[in-house]
Amino acid sequence: MTDSEIQAAIHDMGRRARAAAHELVKLxxxxxxxxxxxxxxxxxxxxSHILTENAKDLERAAANGLSKxxxxxxxxxxxxxxxxxxxxxxxxxxxxxxxxxLEQRTRPNGLLITKKRVPIGxxxxxxxxxxxxxxDAASLCFKTGNATLLRGGSEAIHSNxxxxxxxxxGGERAGLPADSVQLIPFTDRSSVEHMAxxxxxxxxxxxxxxxxxxxxxxxxxRMPVIKHYDGVCHVYVNREADQTMAADIIxxxxxxxxxxxxxxxxxxxxxxxxxxxxxVLGQRLAAAGVxxxxxxxxxxxxxxxxxxxxxxxxxxxxxxxxxSTKTVAGPDEAITHINRYGSHHxxxxxxxxxxxxxxxxxxxxxxxxxxxASTRFNDGGEFGFGAxxxxxxxxxxxxxxxGLAELCSYKYLIDGSGQVRQ
Length: 422
Known about the structure:
Layout: H1 3-24, H2 29-45, H3 47-63, H4 68-74, H5 78-93, E1 101-106, E2 112-119, E3 122-127, H6 132-143, E4 147-151, H7 157-173, E5 181-183, H8 189-196, E6 204-208, H9 211-220, E7 233-237, H10 243-255, E8 264-270, H11 271-287, E9 291-294, H12 296-302, E10 307-308, E11 322-328, H13 331-341, E12 346-350, H14 354-363, E13 368-371, E14 390-392, E15 400-402, E16 408-415
Parallel strand pairs: 3-4, 3-6, 4-5, 7-8, 7-12, 8-11, 9-10, 9-11, 12-13
Antiparallel strand pairs: 1-2, 2-16, 14-15
Helix pairs in contact: 1-8, 2-5, 2-7, 3-7, 5-6, 6-7, 10-11, 11-12
């Protein structure tokens, strides 16, 4: 297809999504939940077809030399597919925020002013790699009465098409309006630009992927964008830390799933405990297959091979079994380092000093700041939101994991009895 034909096709999908959004606001919570359960059932019913399509993506990923971490993010199997369907069912079980009264007051002239949650309208989601984003995004957007226009990456196109089709087909049998869930079948970068300029149809766009993709969307979009650029996440091991706990948390945060945005990238260690903590941490990291980029003090004490850390390393999101580590004089230096090199995403302090932990949580300018816990907990599911739409490092409208409430706007409803303004 020519670029103009792609643009016309995407605009037609946007027009139909806008029409679907007008129908979605008419659905009750009970109707939406019934539709979500039907979507989940259809995903399981189409297991064989979805896994066959996913195999095509995996074959191409291997041929293109994608990293092991990236291929893991792309891979579906019966267990993961069942988890995807279960996540949709969990969204059905969540309270519906649409219609919630946020505020209500009566003015001296008798006007009753009600502030109420409402759907945003049509939400565009641009994402890479992980096919489960298709179902997470569509189910959350639908639960909040929004139509969804999805655009996934080329590496997961077969999986995404199959999942989106299952959602729409299963949902339609239970009353889902046509075109409520649409997936753009074009994977060229021009389709991102066409989508980002389509403000007559899209009310919000959420990019999930690499920094290049997000910068492209932000520089092009004519509608509001919610995003995060990087996940340069830190763990600071304070001199008052339980060192066994600290090592356990670091290993979990780095190795449980290294290719995700809330995985640990840099460890900061107080100089006072470096001589006792680094040798233990070094052995555990080496045993887990983690390559270490360390400052000179850490290199001298780790007891395992490491690379000298560079200035660039401190701001790098590795998304792999690679970790940077630096020795610091104390909390002041740690906080300064995190606010300078971090991405305002997720950072954690390990300490027994509760007062210091509260100060760290107050002064570190990140969406989620933890005390004695792994960075991997910055996740909508772990927060009890059900499937998440993404994690925002913005400060307006949404920050941190985005669940159902963050996919709503609000409007004011005014009830009078004949008042006129004087």
